[in-house]
UniProtKB/TrEMBL annotation:
Protein name: Tyrosine--tRNA ligase
ATP-binding listed as a keyword: yes
Domain RNA-binding S4, chain residue ranges per copy: 356-397
Function as written in the Swiss-Prot or TrEMBL entry: Catalyzes the attachment of tyrosine to tRNA(Tyr) in a two-step reaction: tyrosine is first activated by ATP to form Tyr-AMP and then transferred to the acceptor end of tRNA(Tyr).
Motif ('KMSKS' region): 242-246
Subcellular location: Cytoplasm
Keywords linked to the UniProt accession: Aminoacyl-tRNA synthetase, ATP-binding, Cytoplasm, Ligase, Nucleotide-binding, Protein biosynthesis, RNA-binding
Quaternary structure and partners: Homodimer.
Entry EC no(s): 6.1.1.1
InterPro entries: aa-tRNA-synth_I_CS, aa-tRNA-synth_Ic, Rossmann-like_a/b/a_fold, S4_RNA-bd, S4_RNA-bd_sf, Tyr-tRNA-ligase, Tyr-tRNA-ligase_bac-type, Tyr-tRNA-ligase_bac_2
Organism: Hylemonella gracilis ATCC 19624
Positions with a binding annotation for ATP: 245
Amino acid sequence: MNTSSPAAPFPVTDRVREALAVTRRGCEELIPEDDWVKKLSRSEATHTPLRIKLGLDPTAPDIHLGHTVVLNKLRQLQDLGHQVIFLIGDFTSLIGDPSGRNSTRPPLTSEQIKANAETYYKQASLVLDPQRTEIRYNSEWCLPLGSMGMIQLAAKYTVARMMERDDFTKRYQAGTPISVHEFLYPLMQGYDSVALKSDLELGGTDQKFNLLMGRHLQQEHGQEPQCILTMPLLVGLDGVDKMSKSKHNYIGISEDANTMYAKVLSISDVLMWDWYTLLSFKSLAEIAALKKEVEAGRNPKDAKVALAKEITTRFHGAAAAEAAEQDFINRSKGGIPDEVEEQTLALEGGAPVGIAALLKQAGLVASSGEGNRLIDGGGVRVDGNTVSDKGLKLGAGVYVLQVGKRKFKKVTLSA
């Protein structure tokens, strides 16, 4: 049985030090770092790639930039020559991850999980090299475990240790229900590391307990324990909360290029530097030099434009990023983008329609009241001209409606 830390008979070369620097870039914790150095040294000396695991539960159909923080790190380690394992938690999704939650998460149906999983790997491949990525589903080993195997696995951890989890402790003290099946989640995630013989597992800071469970269970099964790497949670567009669809502060990696570019430009100058560290593929030296230029008086917008173009290029290509930049410039000058969604509406009785009602019919505002408020604030344009009269009515014809800087609709009104 090999349950101890990796031996260290191999030299720590400059390449190992470089790999360590890549590993540590932007990370929150690397546990234990000494063991990781030993693993890297052994890998280089024996020309044996390390097995690096990232597990994602397909709880939603799309991936946003917050997810790519760990995907970027995975790609960096992949480029060093290590074996990346992209694990889709189709079994653990049936349980529901309780991490960071103050209530029981409703488990997904198998149909929902399958539908979401279909898009996950395709989107992750925009960051990872698909030719060098091993894709696995944890139902492969979790389902054959069976009820007896599940009981035996549960015997390897105590309730007292499980209750050390911050979220479980808070819920217990508050009298909030904790379902027994929720204790199974960290056990099953830890068992994934046993099944895959993982050398390193990545996750957000909210996953630390689950990642440490993998080390514990590997030791229980006579394996050399994995190291764990936690990455910060990316702060969303609002500059306050972590990026989340539920917070409406996210950028989906499948969003169109123009929207992606504009959203990146909307973040604060302060938040921009954290995004550079966690999302950019520029070296730390390049980022430091750019930051020094801004501190010396260069317009921070230049740095933000470079970041927006880099991220948009990654998911849509250089040509689309250039077009998105030009589109943003046109919009900021009150111009109309080249491609605008079109819609045809019939005038009731052939009579002209009020501008606020038209904005609602075109789906640009939720209500006529909202439309009127935007008109009062100078936020509505027709054919590039600002609307100041809430009583404006439009007859048959073709109009380009604009709300704010980003919402456009080309509307044909027919009598």
